[in-house]
Design goal:
Order of helices and strands of chain B: EEEHHHHHHEEHEEEEEEHHHEEEHHE
Number of domains of chain A: 1
Number of helices of chain A: 5
Shape of chain B: globular
Shape of chain A: globular
Strand content of chain B: 15-25%
Number of helices of chain B: 12
CATH architecture of chain A: 3-Layer(aba) Sandwich
CATH class of chain B: Mainly Alpha
Order of helices and strands of chain A: EHEHEEEHEHH
Distance between the termini of chain A: 31 Å
Strand content of chain A: 15-25%
CATH topology of chain A: Rossmann fold
Helix content of chain B: 40-55%
Oligomer: heterodimer
Largest sheet of chain B: 4 strands, mixed
CATH superfamily of chain B: Cytochrome-c3 Hydrogenase, chain B
CATH topology of chain B: Cytochrome-c3 Hydrogenase, chain B
Strand order of the largest sheet of chain B: 8-7-6-11
Structural class of chain B: alpha+beta
CATH class of chain A: Alpha Beta
Radius of gyration of chain A: 15 Å
Largest interface: A-B, 61 and 69 residues
Largest sheet of chain A: 5 strands, mixed
Number of strands of chain B: 15
Chain lengths: ~160, ~425
């Protein structure tokens, strides 16, 4: 294998920043990695829409933190912290394309492979707007500091 | 044949009308055969209008998380063509090497995660861990190397940052390249032999279905091309410069479907691994050619399901070609390069072979360096008509096997093309329990 300097904790932002709130995970992981709020020992990845690469990014770590826009049937802008065992995936994947993914399925696959971190935490943020555009909706943009504070508390 | 057939498979529940299979028949009479296709991510074209030449790769790399290297390379090639920018031999080799990582990533994932469960009789890759652990571990190992390979050459895990107009940035050194070479030689090549063996053992599960069609890809005299050359077809000896791609990808509206189809010499054509193989098989390197021989794939194959076999062969090809490139780069010595760009107005076309087929970007850039017009022609759109034509031949042939088997054959047909839908993740749709 290629050489790799890996920290025990990984923070992964998911989503497409060209589709408004869909990219909130990417915006947040960028903010967290540049704000200097987190000490050493944490790797930050903007995995965008990289699908199964999630498996490799979490393999062998002690803790994985995911940040993504999530359909949770909550008010737009709501942030929820949960673990994979707190939820049931509602996604239906006919497996026709690599261009579809279900985070919960990747975590399950990682567990079955014996590579999954002991602790997996997900921060889901309910979107308001998923249309084309690089800016977040006001419902999310106005709460970015609050999101950063809440997520950073996970590994301070 | 008195069975009623009523198949309605929805691809993405959150994206209306995208990628659905709709078949209706009664008493042997076919009423409807539709591949209702996803619209192209054309909104990205609007997004790059008015943006600086420096931003175009960054934006278009987000069109797709699986093909972000291909979109990046196509984008910088279009920008370079429009502004008359030259690149070095080292940049050319590093770009090929980066592009090969994506081919390996995408193909291994597609064959391993989506196709293997069909052939091994399980519903997804998750139960495959219990039923065929060695197969899954081999696939994961190949994908992991490809992932680290693209990390190294692309500068980050996905949506690369080293691919820029005028050059390829080098945040890596010769030792990193030596390590990569060692890993490919010692791990990935043997793993592919194992994977080819698995595919061979279940090859009889691939449907025996031939439908002659036109196969279109890039081709160049020097090697099996993913990046260089002209547009070629199995229907003609003509070599079309990529700048004239709109002459090849002719869009038309079909009464059988709701979206635009593409054609050149027939009603439809196919792009992707099988198209590249059918145009360029004689250029495969020895190990890839031996793999093709082992798997029984021959030039002229017109079974769409064999696209997946061609993907396995291409995995071997890119590893073999990468080893040659790494030797050449290491013997020449890696030199830091600073791209030299002078802004100039113009129109240019970029073209590469994305894992799932030929991809074009066309940009018009003004004298300030801003993009004023863009056109992205993605492989999946070019394959849609071919999928519809496959369906029209498959349904009458296999209708008497019953709804469930027919549905699986149609799903496997779509899967064999690995259609690219616009990559918005939506990875989380959850209910709290």
């Amino acid at each position: 294998m290629l050489p790799k300097n890996m920290n025990d904790i990984v923070v992964i932002g998911l989503g497409n920043p060209l589709l408004s709130d869909e990219g909130v995970g990417v915006h947040l992981v960028r903010n967290l990695s540049t704000l200097g709020q987190c000490g050493p020992g944490v790797d930050f990845f903007d995995l965008g829409t990289a699908g199964a690469r999630i498996l490799h990014a979490i393999a062998g770590r002690k803790k994985a933190v995911f940040i993504d826009c999530a359909f949770m049937d909550k008010d737009p802008g709501t942030i929820r912290r949960f673990t994979p065992d707190d939820v049931r995936s509602e996604k239906k994947l006919p497996r026709m394309s690599l261009h579809e993914g279900d985070l919960m399925q990747f975590i399950e696959l990682s567990r079955r492979l014996g590579e999954c971190p002991d602790e997996v935490v997900i921060f889901g943020i309910q979107p308001e707007d998923l249309s084309m555009g690089e800016a977040l909706s006001a419902a999310l943009a106005d709460r970015m500091d609050e999101y950063v504070e809440m997520i950073a508390a996970e590994f301070r | 044949m008195s069975q009623a057939i009523d198949i309605n498979v929805h691809h993405m529940t959150r994206v209306e009308g995208h990628g659905n299979i709709v078949i209706k028949a009664d008493s042997g009479a076919i009423q409807k055969i539709e591949w209702q296709v996803p619209e192209a991510p054309r909104f990205f074209e609007a997004m790059v209008r008015g943006r600086s030449w420096m931003d175009l790769q960054t934006i278009t790399s987000r069109i797709c998380g699986i093909c972000s290297i291909s979109h990046s390379l196509t984008s910088v090639k279009a920008t370079e063509d429009a502004m008359g920018i030259q690149t070095s031999e080292q940049t050319h080799k590093l770009r090929l090497l980066t592009h090969f990582a994506e081919q390996l990533q995408s193909h291994s994932l597609h064959v391993g995660y989506l196709v293997a469960p069909d052939l091994l009789g399980v519903k997804s890759v998750v139960p495959l861990v219990a039923s065929h652990p060695d197969v899954v571990k081999t696939i994961i190992r190949i994908h992991r190397v490809a992932n680290e390979w693209s990390d190294l050459l692309g500068g980050r895990t996905t949506h690369p940052v080293t691919i820029v107009p005028g050059g390829h940035l080098t945040p890596f050194n010769e030792n990193d390249l030596r390590e990569l070479k060692k890993t490919i030689e010692e791990t990935t090549v043997p793993d592919h032999k194992a994977l080819a063996g698995v595919i061979l053992s279940v090859a009889d599960k691939l449907p025996d279905f031939d439908r002659p069609t036109e196969y279109i890809s890039l081709s160049c005299p020097e090697y099996y091309s993913f990046y260089d050359g002209d547009i070629v077809s199995t229907d003609t000896d003509e070599k079309v410069p990529v700048q004239e791609f709109e002459r090849v990808a002719n869009e038309y509206v079909s009464p059988q479907s709701t979206a635009k189809f593409a054609r050149w010499h027939r009603d439809s054509y196919a792009v992707g691994a099988l198209a590249r193989f059918n145009n360029n098989a004689e250029q495969l390197l020895p190990l890839a050619a031996a793999t093709a021989n082992k798997l029984g794939l021959e030039k002229g194959c017109c079974n769409p399901y064999m696209n997946n076999v061609a993907q396995v062969i291409e995995c071997v090809q890119v590893c073999e070609h990468a080893l040659k490139l790494l030797d050449e780069l290491l013997s020449a010595g890696l030199k830091p390069e600073k791209p030299d760009v002078t802004v100039k107005a113009g129109t240019g076309v970029g073209c590469v072979e994305a894992p799932r087929g030929i991809l074009f970007h066309k940009y018009t850039i003004d004298e300030k360096g801003n993009c004023v017009e863009a056109n992205c022609c993605i492989p999946t759109n070019q394959n849609h008509a071919n999928i519809q034509k496959d369906f029209e031949a498959l349904v009458p042939k296999y209708m008497d096997r019953g709804q469930d088997e027919l549905r699986l054959l149609l799903e496997m047909n779509v899967r064999s093309y690995d259609p690219c839908i616009s990559c918005s993740a939506h990875y989380l749709d959850v209910k709290f329990v």
